[in-house]
Amino acid sequence: MSTLKENGIEIGIYTLADIGPDPVTGKTIGMKQRIDEMIEAAKLAEEAGLAIFGVGEHHRLDYAVSSPAVVLAAIANATNRIRLTSATSVISTLDPVRLFEDFATLDLISNGRAEILAGRGAFIESFPLFGYDTNDYNELFSEHMDLLLKLNENEIVSWDGKFRSSLKNAEISPRPVQEQLPIWIGVGGTPESAARAGRLGVGMAIAILGGDPMRFKPLVDIYRKAGLEAGHSPDKLTVGVTGHTYLAETTEAAKDEFYPYYANYWNYVNRQRGMGTRMSRSDFEQMASPETALFVGGPEQVVEKILRQHELYGHTRFLAQIDIGGLPFDKVQKNIELLATEVMPMLK
């Protein structure tokens, strides 16, 4: 088994707070319980020694969180050390001033633990909700990202754009504890997004939900090349990997336990997108096979997958999404424990 050089990889978990029925019991928990369990998961993650906890943003009734900063502030109050990030903030439809000020406030509450992972998000319901047009998808992302970075660098900002009112010597308050908030861009699979993250000199978090890890290597190369050409130092160009994860004592046990929940998750996500496809067990076996990027298995197999990807991308952060498909909280707890007590020591 290959080993990692230098400081290795920061390991954390993230949640999108999806609310789905448990396919085994048929029960669906409410939003209050979902949020309570997320706060509990963050406390457990910190106690176990994980480095980061992330919370996603959606604006639909089958997800419990529309405001990551508010939930992360509650988590900040219940923890002391774990870093707190959005996963992701839908930057196309958020006002960058509000986003920055919310996370600067979170940074003050948490004593310097806040980060922003900005992305496009998987759904488009926030566009009509906040009065934006999906035809402006790319332009909105670029303009809002540009403003967010200026706000992070300067206390007083003058700025002109197309989609929001101009700023003239605007005072941006509060300022974070950290000199600047760490900002990442979430990248799905497009070379343009990778190049943009590099040019801007922000971290790039790749969402890898399956398939051959080699597919994503070109994105990392494009990102680093664009970053260096834009004059950013290599140590600023950090790569993170995020992905669906399920651990059990053995790979067979992990697949047997996780299959009903994973199939359930894709069933309702596909339904939300207007597709009616169901995942068969043989499809799942293929998706979870050793050479793919899906992090399902015993600790050794998951470590092998992380290390194989590290050889390809040289990433410094891995965030596991472990609570999807109506998975009951006792299984989420078990995954946090296995990540911390089995996977982390093997990586180190």
TrEMBL record:
Lineage top rank: taxon: Bacteria
GO molecular function: monooxygenase activity; oxidoreductase activity, acting on paired donors, with incorporation or reduction of molecular oxygen
Listed InterPro entries: Bact_Lucif_Oxidored (IPR050766), Luciferase-like_dom (IPR011251), Luciferase-like_sf (IPR036661)
Gene3D superfamilies on file: Luciferase-like domain
Sorted UniProt keywords: Monooxygenase, Oxidoreductase
A Gene Ontology term for the protein's cellular component: cytosol
Domain Luciferase-like: 10-315
Pfam families reported for this sequence: Bac_luciferase (PF00296)
Residues passing through the membrane, by range: none
Name of the molecule in the record: LLM family oxidoreductase
